Amino acid sequence: MTSASSFYPPRARWYSPFLHVAGRLCRRLALDHIQLPSGVSIGAAVAAVLFPGVGFYVCWPRVWGKAAIALSVVLLFIQIAWLGTQQATVAFGLLLSVHASGLALFCDRVLPAPTFRARLILAAALLAFVALCLYLPGRRLVQNHLFFPLRINERVIIVRREAPSIALHRGDMVAYSLEGFSEHALVVRAGFGLGPLLAMPGDQIRFTKTTFEVNGIAQPRLALMPEAGEWIVPQKHWFVWPTFGMFGHGHPADATLSETMLSLGTISERQFLGRPLRRWLWRPQL
Does residue 71 contact residue 146 with C-beta atoms inside 8 Å? Predict the structure, then answer.
């Protein structure tokens, strides 16, 4: 039985070149001088990066850190409670500022003493990092998958995002998107709409001068509806009569306007956003 000689060094591993490159990069960027402040754990450092106000709690006296965290909680509550309003927008900006400021304070303790110019650059970079990597993706995630604030006639309605495969019924209030277009002297701006479902896929609609019928059941005719004709709602579509303000120059033909409104009122699965909540926290909506 033979033993390895201590004269020869151990053979380099396959990942050794990567470690060498990483070491050189750390030395060039002065990352090898970065050390956590005394008494600060890795968990606290991660919390300072992810949560607003924690940077102040880690680096400043606890009383000021607790005040910064309490302020962050209040701003988050305002943003949730008044989602979609100007108050929520201001709270969003202040919360972003508190988060970036606490993170800048923490980095100032971790990095070797930089110059004033470097501190300004670092603060701007941290603000961009927090906004682009945490806040804007988080807001987009909430609006695309959870709740969407919809402004209707100077009033904000919170819509619960749902898949179009959910069970829908006639009369359900739904939110949907509208695609803008320009045709026959009519210009329709892209936006969002809110209204009740008047007909489901496969339903037969008949228009008269005074009513419109859904599967033979008559209802009062709505503004700008066609005065004659029959139509069947296509599959994977719903019929919602849109209501919005109108302005412009010229007088398009009534038939053209009714045809355009009929096209806008036929919403597809791709346009479906969800249904508005009856209450948002303590505020009734519908």
Answer: no
149-284 CATH: 2.10.109
Whether 39 contacts 57, CB under 8 Å: no
Q: Where in the chain is the domain with CATH 2.10.109?
A: 149-284
Q: Measured between alpha carbons, how far is 158 from 273 in angstroms, rounded to an integer? A: 11
Residue with tokens 């398009």: 252
- DSSP for residue 199: B
| Separation between Cα atoms, residue 106 and residue 115, nearest integer Å | 16
Look at residue 30 and tell me whether its pLDDT is greater than 80. Answer: no
Separation CA 153–CA 36 (nearest Å): 52
- The answer to whether 191 and 178 have CB atoms below 8 angstroms apart is yes
Average pLDDT, integer, range 97-110: 87
pTM: 0.75
Task: List phi, psi (to 5°) of 280.
Answer: -120, 105
Phi-psi region of 30 (alpha: psi -120 to 50; beta: other; left: phi over 0): left
State residue 186's pLDDT score: 65
